Amino acid sequence: MKITLSLIKADIGSIGGHTKPSDDMMKAAKKSVAKAVKDGLLIDGFVFHTGDDIALLMSHTHGSDNPEIHTFAWDTFIKATEYADECGCYGAGQDLLVDAPSANLRGAGPGVAEITFDFNRKEPRPAESFMIFAADKCGPGAYNLPLYLTFSDPMYCAGLMLPKMMKGFSFTIIDMEHKGADSIIELNAPEDIYKMAILLRDNERFGIKAIKSRMYDEQCVSVSTDRLHTIAGKYTGKDDPVALIRNQGIFPAPEEVVSPYVKVHYVGGGARGSHNMPLMPVKMNTAITGIYCLPIVSCLGFSLNKKGGFSDFYVDFFDNPAWDYVRLKAQQKAIEIRSQGFSGPAMLPYQELEYSGFRDSMEDLFKQFKIVKKD
Ligand code: 13P
Ligand code: MG
Ligand code: MG
User: Fold this and answer.
1) How far apart are CA 332 and CA 78, in angstroms?
2) Which of 129, 226, 235, 249 is buried most deeply by CB count within 10 Å?
3) CA 315 – ligand 3 centroid, Å
4) Structure confidence by residue, pLDDT tens digits, 300-315
């Protein structure tokens, strides 16, 4: 049988500022997902939040881009938004950018990552294990560097030297500034890695959308790559992407997937979505309460049981003392870059501020410039 994993997220409001959703919002989303499992639309479902973004993880047999699943996710976000509205939460319904979406949520605001695959518990996938990532206060290119390192560099992923992975992986990279239909390019690791680097250098414009095993022609990665400002034409909040990654066996192991996060690399985001800040790994359901509004990322692991449902529990990868050291490193890097305030690389370049209020402030000043003749 074919199983689809759908990971769909939205920021639909949060308490005390852009920190975390309220308990009532979470309850409403969980109730909606539990009902969909009971009614048979979903095989299984799981709801959690990272900062102020609620993510719905669903397994089902309806395929990717399925109208019923996307409509269900939208309706679930609408239900939770009612509670956000009721309690006066900040940014109620923030990522729901259209009045009523067409059958597909892509282009409507919520972030979507989906993979459909054969599920038969036979070789090459006798067991199906996967990880989900959810990030807050950052753009959709936040996963570019970690994914590039895991899927193309044996310095980070020794598994790439094994026969099952030696042929490499093919990357689908999307131009996230392109409006309407997707503008994508396929590049192969290892032979195209310099070409990949020239694109992935720019996390604000280009994003890894999907990765496939070249040997088995199996998709193992899907990332939500829609940019809210490309849809809305203005800054409405940061994109805060999610990613699905199948792991083990013919794909990298979880430790190879998480190891690049030790870098706490700088990503676009932070306060007002306008700074360069390190990405801090955190446990599930962490609120944004730290200084500087650090971008955060959480990572959970699941296995699929015989019915295509989730194992009775999940593993929270970043909820481990090993990551405390990494979190401190992130804080130190944040303090360093923020010590220069607004100056130079501490803030994002003009084109990234283009859609926000910063642009209005600058436009106003541009008008006051005068051309003076040289003597
Ligand atoms: P969110 O997109 O998570 O709401 O964050 C927006 C922001 O501007 C933070 O300062
Ligand atoms: Mg928010
Ligand atoms: Mg958010």
Assistant:
1) 39
2) 226
3) 23
4) 999 999 999 998 889 9
